[in-house]
Every structure is written in C-alpha cells, then in structure tokens.
Design goal:
The chain is built from 15 helices and 14 strands. By secondary structure, it is α/β, with parallel strands linked by helices. α4 (about 110-125) crosses α6 (about 155-175), α7 crosses α8 and α13 (about 375-390) packs across α14.
C-alpha cells in the first residue's frame, strides 16, 4: 500500500464532546475551551504532528431528549455550553502555516448570502485553509430556538440542502470572475464592473437577488465535508462532498458505504478519488499494550453513563428513560441521525437494550475505542485503509492534549518509517494539499454555476 494516511483531530468548541465524562479527568484541559491560548497551542501541536486539519463539530440546540429535559446535558456538559467554532479559526490560522480547519455550520439556520461571505472571509484570512462540514441538524431544540415547531423531515432537509448549495455555488463561483479584481491604483480602479455579476435565484426555499460581497478567495468554495450515511445522505455526498466522514461500524459496512458513495459520484460524472473518506476513530495508545491498557483503565473511571445516554438519546431521537435496562428499545421512525440507529442495530442486533448500549459505551460514546500499542495501532490503521478504501481517520479526543500528543509522538513516526505518512506539508491551500488543485474541478456540480464569458 502506497497511499498516504491522513489525520484530522475531531473536537468541538465545548467542554464535553464525544467521550462523555472525560473532561473530568485531572489531566484533561478541555475546560480551558474559552481561552484563545488553549486553541492556538492546540493548533501548533497538531501542525507539529503534520495533521491535515482540525475538524470542529457543532450543534445549535441543547440535548433534551433523555427524560425530556436539558438537565442531564447541563449536569454532564454534553456539548453544552458550546461556543461558535468559526471564531476560533483566524487565531489558530495565525499561529500555523499549514493546518486545515473544517468547521461545522448548519445550513438550515444560516442565510446563504451572509454565510457565503463568512466562508469567503475565512478562506482569505487562512490563506485558503478553510473547509465546511455541511449539516442539516438533528435537534428539535435547535428548530424551536429559531421559532419553528420542530425539524423538517430527514429527507426533506436534504432537498433544502441541495437548493442551499446551488445558491452558495452561484455566489462563490459565479458572481466574481477571476479577472474581476484589477487593483489598478494609477487608474483608481479596484474591480472591473463588467466582470462582477449579480446572482438571481428564485427557488422553492430561497430567493436571492444580490452581488456576492467578497472578491474571490484562494479556494473560492471551501473544501466540502459531509457525514451522512443514509441513502439520501450518500446521494448528497456523491453530488457535493469532497471529504466524507463515516463512523464506527464493521469493516464490511464501511467498505459498502465507501464503495457506494464513490460509485454514485462516478455516476454523476465525478471520479471516485474526487472523494476522500475519513473514518471516525477513538485511540488509546502507549509504547506497549500494557501501557495502553493501563491508560484506558484510568480513563474509564471518569466516564459518565448518564451523559453518554444523553448524547445517544438526542442523536438517535430516542428517550431511553422510557425503557427498562433489559427491555428491547423501540426505535420507531426518527428525524434524528438515522444512520446511528442502523449502526447500533448492526452492532448489537435489532433487539438491543439500554444495557447493551451502555455496555458498548465504555469510554462514554458509541464508538468502541482501540486500545493498543503504537505498533498495533499502525497495523490497525493500515488494515482499515486496505480493507475498506478509507483515506484517513477523524481522531476523536479523549483526554486532551495527551491523546493527540501520544499519536504524534508514538504513531506518526512509525507510519513515516513505512512511507505511509507525510514528512512535510505540501504547499498551497487545503484543497491543493488534499487533491492537488486549489479550486473545485470542472467535474464538480459547482462548476456549472461559473460565469462563462461570451
């Protein structure tokens, strides 16, 4: 295998992200999340380890499904309090030269005209290192926060997203031509009005009549990330995404998703390698297996089962307090993350119980951790890449910063020795580092919205 393995750090601008309860570990620093120095130090560490990027998740509602109350989430810091991830990016970018930044933004609650300007601004300020994780949301509490009664149906949200992306492409790709900025001081002409075009979009959900306010940034459109694994989500990914995240399943399940999304992309005129797939992974490692096991046993003392259930309840749309420990959980039809329910069905069988769910969440999440020596971790990473076709890993934090320090100190050098990890960064914007080109290719649907001069 000659393919380079890629790493993103997976985190959130909050205290408790995925591994619920580990923020209470004495060595964990995530309570410093309100400090800019915490994040700039974080970014420097990751760049020293040649990580491709830091991927920042986000939610805009509170987890109130378990017991029908926000109290468990507030007690356990289950992604609340949570601050805006975009505010962190300029500071982290100023502290680094190469690290990429994937930020989550819920298009359901963002007006495309202003959001396009925000993305262009971040792309300028980072020198082209910004990516956007496209999400449509899964919390009714978020919908209520902006005056709606509840979320749209799961597939309807993707229909909305398709139109949203069309507007974004028109603004970022089609409004300003590449030669529009003249910057001629002598003639006192900054932009050629003939090369700046209005966007007229009158669709089912959006109406925009405007000029995009930002001049073209290094990438124009940010690198596009997406995480949907449902049939509708896969079609959306095949159409729009450049980087796709998949989460904890068996190899055959991941391989099927990867193969299907790439086949769908090829059916739309794209190439299979236009999409890079990152597998979510939780890794606890050490120089020896015993060292890793000891660390894992230390970590698990701080896990909160209540907080883990709180997160699972919201992401699956199921109030687990309505079920006894050994009563089969009735999943029914949910407007939350349907792929999470299917993943649990595959992991524990269709008649799984709350007890089985809790037993699976050994480090406070549904993602089973890999607990292994650094050499074993390398073998595991290589096996997953070879057997499933994924390109890299979205590494979920456990106890920060030591969880990433362990990867950088112990795992990265071993991968480099095998020729499976970069020894220096490629120059250029994030998309160029990932794909070899700074702008979206003509194979991408966004290219149909570029202005063609007659």
């Amino acid at each position: 295998m000659a393919r380079e393995i890629r790493f993103n750090a997976f985190d959130m601008n909050c205290v408790g992200h995925i591994q619920q309860g580990l923020w209470s570990h004495p060595r964990d620093r995530s309570m410093e999340y309100t400090s800019l120095a915490y994040w700039t130090d974080y970014a420097k560490r990751l760049e020293a380890g040649l990580f491709d990027g830091i991927f920042l998740a986000d939610v805009v509602g509170i987890y109130d499904v378990l017991s029908g109350s926000p109290a468990p989430a507030l007690r356990g810091a289950v992604q609340v309090p949570v601050n805006d991830p975009m505010m962190l990016v300029p500071a982290m970018a100023a502290a680094t030269r190469h690290l990429g930044f994937g930020v989550t933004a819920n298009l359901t609650y963002e007006q495309p005209f202003l959001f396009a300007r925000r993305m262009a601004t971040l792309d300028h300020l980072t020198g082209g290192r910004i990516g956007w994780n496209i999400v449509t949301g899964y919390l009714d509490s978020a919908a209520r926060a902006i005056g709606l009664d509840g979320q749209m149906a799961h597939d309807d949200r993707y229909d909305l997203a398709d139109e949203y992306m069309e507007v974004i492409y028109k603004l970022l790709e089609g409004s300003w031509e590449d030669g529009a900025v003249v910057a001629d001081k002598a003639a006192k002409v900054y932009a050629d009005p003939q090369r700046v075009h209005p966007v007229h979009h009158h669709g089912r959900q959006y109406k925009v009549d405007a000029y995009h306010l930002s001049e073209p940034s290094p990438q124009r459109t940010p690198v596009l990330y997406q995480a949907g694994s449902s049939p509708r989500g896969r079609q959306f990914a095949a159409t729009h995404a450049e980087c796709v995240f998949v989460n904890g399943q068996k190899k055959e399940g991941v391989r099927e998703i990867v193969t299907d999304i790439r086949a769908r992309a090829e059916g739309l005129g794209r190439h299979g390698d236009d999409i890079k797939v990152f597998l979510g992974a939780t890794i606890v490692t050490g120089r020896t297996e015993k060292e890793a096991r000891d660390k894992f046993e230390d970590y698990r003392q701080y896990v909160s089962s209540e907080a883990a259930l709180t997160h699972a309840a919201a992401s699956m749309g199921i109030d687990f307090d309505k079920f006894d420990m050994d009563e089969p959980v009735e999943t029914g039809k949910s407007q939350a993350i349907t792929s999470n329910i299917k993943a649990m069905d595959r992991a524990a069988g269709p008649q799984w119980t709350k007890r089985k769910l809790i037993e699976q969440m050994v480090l406070g999440s549904r993602q089973p951790p890999l607990v292994a020596s650094a050499d074993q971790v390398v073998d595991w990473l290589v096996d997953w890449v070879e057997d499933t076709g994924v390109d890299g890993f979205n590494l979920s934090r456990t106890v920060v910063p030591e969880c990433f320090d362990d990867i950088i100190e112990l795992v990265v050098p071993r991968l480099q020795e095998k020729g499976l990890y970069k020894t220096e960064y490629r120059e250029g914007p994030l998309r160029e580092k990932l794909f070899g080109n700074a702008r979206l290719t003509d194979r991408h649907i966004a290219s149909t919205h570029r202005h063609q001069r007659g």
